[in-house]
Predict the structure.
Amino acid sequence: MRPRRGGRNLPGGGRIHPDSGGRSLAETHAHDQPGWRQLLPDEGKPRTGAARTTIHEVFARPGDQGMTASQGKVALVTGGNRGIGRGIAEALAADGATVALTARDAGAAEKAAIEIGHGARGYACDVRRPESVAALFQAVDRDLGGLDVLVNNAGVGLFGPVAGMSVEDWLTVIETNVNGVFFCTREALPRMKRRGGGYVFNVSSLAGKNTFPGGAAYSASKHAVNGFSETLFQEVREDGIRVTYLMPGSVATDFGRGSAAKQDWALQPSDVGEMVVDLLHTSPRALHSRVEMRPARPQKRP
Ligand SMILES: NC(=O)c1ccc[n+]([C@@H]2O[C@H](COP(=O)([O-])OP(=O)(O)OC[C@H]3O[C@@H](n4cnc5c(N)ncnc54)[C@H](OP(=O)(O)O)[C@@H]3O)[C@@H](O)[C@H]2O)c1
């Protein structure tokens, strides 16, 4: 059984939360949520494996009582073919979601989806182009029937002093990291509202609060993601849509000039995936709007 923070586990998978006054999480949610709610332990498919609640249970809506764990909620991860997005896509799929992931190349997306399994689907999308994003969401509607979770992960890092930065590099960073988040979120919101709620994760960075020479474009883009996210959650919270922006420090990927192989001290993509899944498992009553993540034991500077 996977350890959970606080509380105690109940036989059959229910769980007593430390602040619940003795009620299980399932009971707490069932009473508190006007829309989506957590299934009671004896609703839906009997559990045979780990006692941990699944995304299906956290996101269950009234009338879903008959659904089984295999009837997945749909999660779209941009840039889910590699790096952090891949870690998130794998974690979501392992937790029972039906994952749609994107890469710029259709073959790369489809290959990653096959490797992840669990019914994952791969799609080509350039998040800088609104028409490409619109086509992606239409394809997900067609293939998977809607959307419950959006992970705005696709991003690039191009670094250099402002005085020497080309207009092209500046635009690449801003258009991918900021415009892309807007284009995808704009498509996702009406779909989530139609389903009664949802969850938007925006992958920002500690560069969204810490600045450094050479990081102007990247840092500006992540500050923008933070501001976008904080505005967004205020706009959609009453629709049952939660918004979290994640601010990882160094993650072992090929991002920028990094090398996934060398960074054994860094966070791993799976750490970010685990955080996304953990946040999905939190009470819909709580909004964890901003999450900072950093290596516990970072490499010491010489
Ligand atoms: N690695 C870190 O230390 C770190 C730390 C904090 C935050 N982040 C953030 O985490 C996110 C993922 O980074 P990563 O480290 O996983 O980088 P990565 O390994 O380089 O992966 C980047 C992903 O973004 C996709 N992408 C890039 N440009 C795109 C575009 N125009 N349209 C659609 N997809 C595009 C890539 O797709 P292709 O395969 O098609 O290129 C790839 O899937 C980024 O937002 C980054 O800013 C990274």
